[in-house]
Amino acid sequence: MKLTFELDGCDYRVDTDNAVSLAIPLEFDGKQPNHFGAPVASAMALEADGFVGDTRRGGSCNVSQLTIVPHCNGTHTESLSHIVDELIPVGDMLSPLLVPCTVISLEAETLGGCNEHYTPNPEPGDLVISARRLAEALAEQPRAPHCGAVVIRTLPNSEEKFSRAYADAASGPPPVFFSSEAMALLLGFDHLLVDFPSIDKMFDQGLLANHHSFWNIDSGSHHLNAGARQQRSVTEMVFVPDSVADGLYLLNLQIPPFKTDAAPSRPVLFPLELAE
Question: Architecture of domain 2-25+75-274 in CATH?
Answer without folding.
Answer: 3-Layer(bba) Sandwich (3.50)
